[in-house]
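User: What would this chain look like folded?
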Amino acid sequence: MTPNRREFLKSAGAAGVAAVAGRPMRVSGGQGQSGSNAEVRMVETPVLDVAVEEHGDQTGFPIILLHGFPYDVRSWDGVAPPLADAGFRVLVPHLRGYGPTRFRDPEVPRMAEQAAIAQDVIDLADALGLDQCALAGFDWGNRAACITSILHPERIRAQVAINGYSVQDTVTPGRPASAAAEARLWYQWYFNTERGRQGLEVNRRDIIRHLWETWSPTWDYTDEAFNRSAPSFDNPDFVDVVIHSYRHRHVNAPGEERFLEVERRLAERPTVDVPAIVLRGLDSGFGRPPADPTGDEGRFPRLVTRRLVAGAGHDLPVQRPDEVVNALLELLA
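Assistant: Here's the prediction, encoded as structure tokens.
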């Protein structure tokens, strides 16, 4: 048992599991929150009440699907049902700052550095009593999955890393990149200003829709699809969480003291030592992924395969859910 798990069980006992069992609710597609009438549970962890959509048999091997910014659990609507049909227990949590997920302490600063997002994954697994699980994620969710696999490899049977390795060095300020690369990150520089904070507060849906379309430029997002996800961004902590994430990664905001040593370790860019498949969308607005697999092979020493996926942009699970399903089934066969 890991120290984190011991500390959680000592402080919470069976209360977290009781909260899971005692607070289910149904969220229907007609309300714009779910495309599949999945059961939603509020899971109590040390920091958060996490809203988790659950699919499949609770006795099946668990798979946790982690969304990114600026997306939500709806990104997995094409992935979760086939995995549930294959006998797996599929858990799709709203990350901190999204949807119904809430911080338990109203006074705690709303921080969202990469180590915190990864700790949320372990806290969720602990609260659900999961000794092992498989992970798939993209954007923030992939970063959380990579870090969870680095810090707790014994807990992760397999990982699907969408768009590859994404652990950041949040200790050393980055150096300027090419004009094209810097231009793609305009939103990050924007969020590091007070104007950007205000813009995200008052124009969040406009900004998010623009990012969706520029990050997956060949995909046609319908108003209906966007409106299913949009309520998730009305979470009262959304703006604070997003702003802290992008300021912390550029060394413009302090992180939580409890994660200082973790962030120093992550700054060394350690490898992900669990069985993994890397999926990269060929139509990503961040640029075409390299054909050379050497970089991914170096970051994932137990890499099973690497696939460049046609017809997929940054949010690959939306456009090619079949590729994610097949990768997980291959890893867990």
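The beta strands are 24-26, 39-44, 48-55, 62-66, 89-93, 102-103, 133-138, 156-162, 276-281, 303-309. If you want, I can go into more detail on any region.
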